[in-house]
Amino acid sequence: MTTFEQRFGQVPEVTASAPGRVNLLGEHTDYQGGFVLPTAIPQKTTVGLGRNGTDTHVLYSANLDRTLRVPVGEVGEDFAPYLTGCLNLSGVTEGLNVYITSEVPSGGLSSSAALEVATLRALRELYGLALDDVELALRGVQVEHQFVGVQCGVMDQLASSLADTRTMLLIDTRSLERRAVPFPAGAEVLVLDSGVPRRLAESGYNERRGEVEEAARLLGVKELRDVTDISVVEALPSPLKERARHVVSENARVLEGLEADAVTFGGLMNATHASLRDDYAVSHPLVDDLVVLLQAHPDVFGARITGAGFGGAVVALVREGTAAAVGEAVLATYGSLGKVVVP
C-alpha cells in the first residue's frame, strides 16, 4: 500500500483516526429525537493532511488506490464530498493533500462517519479549530446533509466521536445527553458482513425520514419521541403507521435494554430486527437469512441488522468467548458471503 510520503513526497503535517460503530439498539430513532445504544468497534479510519501550496485539494484513498483532484471551495464527486464537505465547512482556503486509509468495512458500521470525524479531528489539529468532540460530530452531520445528500440523524458521528469499545453509549439524541452503559454480563458482540452492499443516498433512507416526519405532523407532535402510547399510531394510514410503530417501539426497547440481562437484551435485538424488517422495511432477504442463522445458534442471545439497512452488516449478542466460533459456523452455512468484523 502506498504511503502518504510515497504518494505526495512529503510527510503529513497531522494524522488523526476515528472508529466505526455498531448499534445494539435504537435504529432509525436518532432523527426523531430518540434514544440509541451504539458502541465503537476496534476498526478505525485514518486521515493524514498536508498543505500542498496550490489551489487544489488532492484526495487519495489507499483502500481504493484512487486519487481525486478538487479545486478549493468545490465539492467533487465519488468519495470527495465526505472530505470536501469537512474542508469547506471548516473554512479551508488552501490546497491540501489528503491521505485516507480505513479498516472499517462499508455497510452498517458508519464508515462514512468515521471518515468525517477523522478528517475533522485532523483539521482541528492542523488549524487549531475551537471544536469540542460534540461540536465536531455535529459538523460531520452537516457534511452528510449539505454535501453527501443523506438526511441522517446524529448517532453515527456522535458514536464515532465519543464512544469506546468497552461500553455501550446511551445517547438521548434530543438533548445530546449521554452515559456509558455496561454490556450485559457474560456476553460479547459479534458483527458480520452480510455481503449485500448498499448506498444510503440511493436507498430509501431519505424516504423513511420523510415518512416519519409526516407521521409526527399528523399526530401533532414535534417528533415521534413524544409518543409514549404506541396505540395512537394505529390511526395513521399505511405506511406511516408502520414506520411510526417502529420508532415508538424501538425507543421503548432501548430504555428496557439498559438494565436487561443477556437473554432479555438478545430478545430485544430480535424484536428490533423484526420491526426493521416488517414495519420499517429496511432489511434485505439475504440479511434476513443471516439473522435467522444467527438467532438459531445456541450461543447467540439475539441478532439483528445494524445501521441504516438495505444491506450491510448484522450484529449479534453472543455468549462470552464464542464470537469467533459462532461467526465461522454461521458464515459457513450462509455461504461465506461475509466475514467476521468484531469478535
UniProtKB/TrEMBL annotation:
Pfam families xref list: GalKase_gal_bdg, GHMP_kinases_C, GHMP_kinases_N
Top-level taxon of origin: Bacteria
Enzyme Commission code: 2.7.1.6
The keyword Kinase appears for this protein: yes
Keywords: ATP-binding, Carbohydrate metabolism, Galactose metabolism, Kinase, Nucleotide-binding, Transferase
Residues covered by the GHMP kinase C-terminal domain: 259-334
Domain Galactokinase N-terminal: 3-48
Domain GHMP kinase N-terminal: 91-162
Entry similarity comment: Belongs to the GHMP kinase family. GalK subfamily.
Name by which UniProt lists this protein: Galactokinase
Organism encoding this protein: Deinococcus aerolatus
Lineage per the UniProt record: Bacteria, Thermotogati, Deinococcota, Deinococci, Deinococcales
